[in-house]
Amino acid sequence: MANALLMIGWKRPVPGREEETYAWLMREAMPTFERWRTEGRFERHEIVTLTPYAGTLNSFVLLFGQREALDALRRTDEFEAFSIALASRVLDLAVVPGLNLEGIQALSARRSSVART
After folding, report:
1. pTM of this prediction?
2. Please, which residues bridge with residue 96 across strands?
């Protein structure tokens, strides 16, 4: 079961490249996420677009999986090339690892066991 996540987020497409960016996301990015999932690099993914608010993050993809597997994916040449390709199409790309509830609970348990020693 997933204990971590990897967020790949961005502000918006580069101005003037919106159509190209959305086409690339559908033609290249989404199939790449699905292939990585079927290869077992993560368990599932969610694609999110936020409604207007005062912040700058507008869209992101969450990859849910095991922390070690997500870390390994992030360090591959393929993921780096994917990130470079995406960064050329969007503003303010962010690739951020994180924990879901299961990961937070495991972290809390480790913290508690360390505090007792």
Report:
1. 0.89
2. 7
* C-alpha dist (Å) from residue 21 to 2, 30, 58, 81, 86: 30, 12, 14, 16, 8
How many percent of the chain have pLDDT more than 90?
Answer: 86
What is the average per-residue pLDDT within 49-77?
96
3-class DSSP assignment, residue 28? helix
Contact criterion met (CB below 8 Å) for 44 and 52: no
SS3 44: strand
Q: Buried b / exposed e across 90-113, counting CB within 10 Å, b at 16+? A: beeeebeeeebeebeeeeeeeeee
Q: Does domain 4-115 have CATH number 3.40.190.10?
A: no
Strand, coil or helix: 109: helix
Domain residue ranges in the chain? 4-115
* Tens digit of each residue's pLDDT (9 = 90 or more) over 64-89: 999 999 999 999 999 999 999 999 99
- What pLDDT shows up at residue 116? 65
